[in-house]
Amino acid sequence: MIVVLNRDADEKAISKVAEKLNRMGYGVHRSTGENRTILGAIGERREEAAHTLEAMPEVEKVVFVTSPFKLASRDFHPENTVIEINGVSIGGSALAVMAGPCAVEGEGQLLKAAWTVKEAGAQVLRAGAFKPRTSPYSFQGMEKEGLRLLEKVRRETGLLIVTEVMDQFTVGELAECADIIQVGTRNMQNFYLLRELGKIRKPVLLKRGMSATIEEWLMAAEYILSGGNYQVILCERGIRTFEPYTRNTLDLSAVPLVKQLSHLPVIVDPSHGTGKSSLVPAMSRAAVAAGADGLLIEVHPHPQEALSDGPQSLNPGQFAALMEELKGVAACVGREL
Ligand code: PEP
Ligand code: MN
Questions:
Q1: pLDDT tens for residues 203-212?
Q2: Which helix (H) or strand (E) element contains residue 100?
Q3: Ligand 1 atom closest to Cα of 309?
Q4: Per-residue pLDDT tens over the stretch 62-97
Q5: 3-state SS class at 85
Q6: Is residue 70 part of a domain?
Q7: SS3 for 213?
Q8: pLDDT at residue number 197
Q9: How many A from CA of 269 to the centre of ligand 2?
Q10: Residue 222 belongs to a domain with what CATH number?
Q11: Does residue 35 register a pLDDT over 90?
Q12: Confidence of residue 216 (pLDDT cuts 50, 70, 90)
């Protein structure tokens, strides 16, 4: 249930209600809004507990959240969550663009990709050091050496870094060198990993599972939030359907729908969503028009030489042209780029 406090509730009043909830056996999560504070009480649904709380002068009302996700729901946090990382905000009126090669392949390739995306206006460099590949014979990523290169490029360019975590054992190591930790589609329901990510205080980019419903996706976010890490960014990256012309089917209706259900920022990955570089510009424009808070786009200095996902990667010229086009679309929907 959520406990909505009176508009004039001060810190003392908020603590009083939070302590009462703790004594009643509830776990308490706080959401501080512009107008009022809401306390999310995680525990058993008990009508009499709600009556007791409603009798407190500090409490305006108690609401039972009907969806299975609680902390991810708009009931708990009516305003949009805006995540601030070193001067870059994700979920506010400015769009966030994360771009770069699918994988770190070497210093020269990474540096070139980084300067390319930075000069075109992206704020975050995205590249995988650990790669979850379908075939054990495909390039598996540079792993630890890749992390060192990401750190180096971060220092040289000032770009934020997002990179993928593969398991719960490497969360600490990744948290030291990444600004945002990516959970890939294949790990969206790796609950041990999600629990570990709930313990850290770093933003997590949670990709939608390739066969996950929107509810399952939001429940995966709930795992992280319930651990006390409230910095979750959702990423729609396409789902499996019967259509073979595209790698996945990009579900753009998920963007406005998730924004109704949840306060978390939502970005779109048209690269994995389509698997074809020729479709990426149109789907990027559509994503921004649909209300996405940002984009994740694969960009490689030489896509034809990429060790992974070359066919869906833009080259530097294509990416720069797309960023220019997106400015107009963003302005049409009241956003900046
Ligand atoms: C990636 O971002 O390169 C990746 C592997 O993505 P996904 O998990 O969406 O397939
Ligand atoms: Mn990729």
A1: 999 999 999 9
A2: strand 96-100
A3: 3
A4: 999 999 999 999 999 999 999 999 999 999 999 999
A5: strand
A6: no
A7: coil
A8: 98
A9: 10
A10: 3.20.20.70
A11: no
A12: very high
Amino acid symbol at 15: S
> How many distinct structural domains can be found in the chain?
2
Q: Which two tokens stand for residue 75?
A: 């009931």
Assess whether 175 and 26 both reside in one domain.
no
C-beta atoms surrounding 114 within 10 Å:
26
CA 269 to ligand 1 centroid distance, Å:
9
Give residue 238's pLDDT. 98
Q: Which residues surround ligand 2, an ion (CB under 5 A)?
A: 102, 309
Other C-beta atoms lying within 10 Å of the C-beta of residue 117:
29
Residue whose CA is at the smallest distance from ligand 1 atom 3: 102
Contact 99, 117 (CB under 8 A): yes
Pocket of ligand 1 (CB under 6 A): 102, 128, 132, 184-185, 207, 237, 272
Question: If residue 281 lies in a helix (H) or strand (E), which one and from where to where?
Answer: helix 280-289
CA atoms within 13 A on the CB side of 325: 16
In which element (H, E) is residue 139 found? none
Segments forming the whole domain that contains residue 290: 83-332
Question: Model's pTM, two decimal places?
Answer: 0.97
pLDDT over 90 at 34, yes or no? no
> Is 234 inside a domain boundary?
yes
How far is the C-alpha of 272 from the C-alpha of 185, rounded, in Å? 10
At position 297, the amino acid (one-letter code) is I
